[in-house]
Design brief:
The complex is a heterodimer of chains A (322) and B (256). Chain A is α/β, with parallel strands linked by helices. Chain A has helices at residues 17-29, 46-51, 70-84, 95-108, 217-225, 234-238, 269-275, 304-321; strands at residues 3-7, 10-11, 14-15, 32-39, 56-61, 88-92, 113-116, 118-120, 127-132, 137-143, 148-152, 169-172, 183-188, 202-206, 229-232, 259-263, 280-285, 298-301. In chain A, strand 9 and strand 10 (137-143) form a beta hairpin. The radius of gyration of chain A is 21 Å and the shape is elongated. The termini of chain A are far apart. Chain B has helices spanning 35-51, 66-75, 93-104, 126-134, 187-193, 238-252, and strands at residues 2-6, 9-11, 19-20, 23-24, 31-33, 54-61, 79-84, 111-115, 137-148, 151-158, 161-168, 171-175, 198-202, 217-223, 232-233. In chain B, the strands form three sheets. In chain B, strands 11-10-9-12-8-1-6-7-13 form a nine-stranded mixed beta sheet, sandwiched between helices. A two-stranded antiparallel sheet of chain B has the order 2-5. In chain B, a hairpin with a 2-residue loop joins strand 9 and strand 10 (151-158). Classes of the chains: A alpha/beta (322), B alpha/beta (256). Strand 10 of chain A pairs antiparallel with strand 14 (217-223) of chain B.
Chain lengths: 322, 256
């Protein structure tokens, strides 16, 4: 009977989807999935982890865990690892997961497979697929021996169906979280309407063709209609049409949404690295020779300022009729 | 201030990736300093210029990496260290972190900088692992760094949000885009760089056990993603194209 510890992650009081995806990944690696929730008040989220497939849940609550810090969270996670001795550990490859997982791996003196997009095989035979060169290539890796530790990229491993009827034990572990060397002073939310770029099912991205900061407005409206997030090419960021936090590409974020709409983006190889593994790609560009059309499933040759408003109307109409 | 920058030689972002015999083909490829490490080098130079001290750039690699170290020296770093790893068949993040930490452990570093991720392997593990092995704090994906004595105020990017925090030296930070605008090496800088110290160390020069560089994560296969079939460029009146596109996304691709 092998045991997998899965870190659940909440954002603004709600569990992130990647938590459920991590449970699904955990199910492939072992028999018993133990959900772990860390924070100042997280116990109320435990049942949702169970509904998505966790067999039981452990919570670690402490006032010093109100904000994520690597010191605080690693103390919590390591205490639970010591108690449970899991055979495998799964985190989301999120801001928290990226920051925390190397420290936990270092403390445990084990290997870590970061940014996993798929798992082949099961249990001890599991092989992990992860992008390298920002998705220009992929590698299959395995952990030679000892505890398996992976962080999974949001939006790639399908969660299990929710079953509110499932039940499981919820227990708490008491950890005296102390000696935080980083003190969080302020968090300024800049993300578009709470839809995180790396988890968004739809991304509407603009490039130099957007021409100005105001030019992003129609793209934002389209993203809103589709419940998606806005992204950008490096060109648009360098031209200061938008914040660097929106940049998609080899430098910047790598995204794999269900639908990627590229508006006024020429498709430099660095940008393609960040988005070409999206499930469906739509390109809108005035230049029929633009590189972006080579990776697009559907293309419209035209001015984005004409096409995007028409798209907004059509999608709105589709929603009304649906 | 005793400042160290961890850098990695990587493929130029313009390069197409070719796989040959299960390995990435490096033949004829251009190499650069990992772009995120350039922000780290620039920040290190700015901190040194404001606070005094020296900047040492450190890399693990073979002699080819000398070129990237010279570039860092030309930007303004004071000295460079190349830790030669040619004797190792394979090196993962666990091993790389141990080598760097072994080199750094008696250097009394006040500040260590690195890129938040290398654009080739893309794991982002080595910086935090090095900090943990050295027993110092780390802050990743920083976009602003303000040092006042040993007090440090940092702004970091958290998935698009920005978080402000305070901490203190000694510290390891990893750079995110937006931290600064890395300078290009000037011609006088390039000339000066030729005379700056570049030390080459063998693994035997460091106190490394076999266990410290034991490969924990094994690569089974490297492959290219399947080529996408050419897509469909829609035709006709713009209004009709848009209608067709929305229908295709709804009924054919089923993503809306």
């Amino acid at each position: 009977m092998s045991k997998v510890l899965v870190l659940g992650e909440a954002r603004e009081g709600a569990l992130r989807n990647v938590s459920f995806e991590a449970i699904a990944a955990g199910k492939k690696l072992g028999d018993e999935v133990v959900g772990l929730l860390v924070g100042d008040a997280v116990a109320s989220l435990a049942n949702e982890l169970i509904a998505y497939g966790a067999d039981r849940v452990i919570t670690v609550e402490h006032p010093n865990l109100a904000h994520y810090t690597s010191d605080g969270y690693s103390q919590a996670v390591l205490a639970v690892v010591e108690q449970e001795s899991p055979d495998a550990i799964v985190f989301g490859h999120t801001a928290v997961g990226k920051d925390l997982s190397p420290k936990v791996a270092s403390r445990l003196q084990i290997g870590l497979v970061s940014d996993v997009t798929a798992i082949e095989g099961e249990g001890d035979d599991a092989v992990f697929i992860r992008p390298i060169y920002s998705g220009k290539a992929f590698e299959k890796v395995k952990i030679s021996e000892g505890t398996v530790f992976v962080s999974i990229r949001p939006n790639n491993i399908a969660p299990l169906a929710k079953d509110a009827g499932r039940s499981g034990d919820v227990s708490s572990v008491s950890v005296d979280v102390q000696n935080l060397r980083s003190i969080i002073k302020e968090v300024v939310r800049k993300s578009t309407d709470g839809v995180d770029l790396s988890e968004a099912k739809v991304v509407v991205a603009g490039g130099r063709g957007v021409k100005s900061e105001e030019g992003f407005e129609p793209l934002k409206e389209l993203a809103n209609v589709l419940g998606g997030a806005v992204g950008a090419s490096r060109g648009a960021c360098d031209a200061e049409y938008c914040d660097y936090s929106l940049q998609i590409g080899q430098t910047g974020k790598v995204v794999t949404p269900d639908l990627y709409i590229a508006a006024g983006i020429s498709g430099a190889i660095q940008h393609l690295a960040g988005m070409s593994n999206s499930k469906v790609i739509v390109a809108i560009n005035k230049d029929p020779e633009a590189n972006i059309f080579k990776v697009a499933d559907y293309g419209i040759v035209g001015d984005l300022f004409e096409v995007v408003p028409l798209l907004i109307e059509e999608f709105k109409a589709l929603k009304v009729n649906a | 201030m005793n400042i160290f920058v961890l850098v990695k030689r990587t493929f130029d972002t313009e390069e197409k990736i070719v796989v040959n015999g299960g390995q990435i083909d490096e033949g004829g490829a251009e190499f650069i300093i990992n772009p995120y490490d350039e922000y780290a080098i620039e920040e290190a130079i700015q901190v040194r210029d404001a606070q005094g001290g020296s900047v040492t750039v450190v890399t693990i690699g073979d002699e080819e990496a000398e070129k990237q170290l010279r570039t860092a020296l030309a930007m303004g770093a004071d000295s460079a260290v190349l830790i030669n790893s040619e004797d190792l068949d394979d090196l993962d993040q666990f091993g790389a972190a141990h080598i760097l930490a072994e080199y750094l452990k008696d250097k009394d570093a006040d500040l260590i900088l690195a890129g938040n991720v290398a654009i080739d392997g893309g794991s982002g593990q080595v910086g935090p692992r090095v900090a943990d092995l050295l027993g110092i704090n780390y802050v990743t994906t920083i976009t602003n760094l303000d040092i006042n004595g040993s007090d440090v105020t940092i702004v970091r990017d958290v998935e698009g949000d920005s978080e402000t925090l305070t901490t203190s030296l000694p510290l390891l930070v990893t750079a995110q885009q937006g931290l600064n605008e890395p300078r290009y090496p000037s011609l006088p800088g390039i000339m000066k760089a030729k005379k700056k110290p570049l030390e080459e160390l063998e693994l035997d020069d460091l106190d490394i056990d076999e266990d410290d560089v034991e490969v924990k994560v094994e690569t089974v296969e490297i492959y290219l993603p399947p080529q996408k079939a050419a897509g469909r460029v829609l035709q006709g009146e713009l209004q009709d194209q848009v209608k067709e596109l929305v229908q295709l996304l709804h009924s054919e691709a089923k993503v809306i």
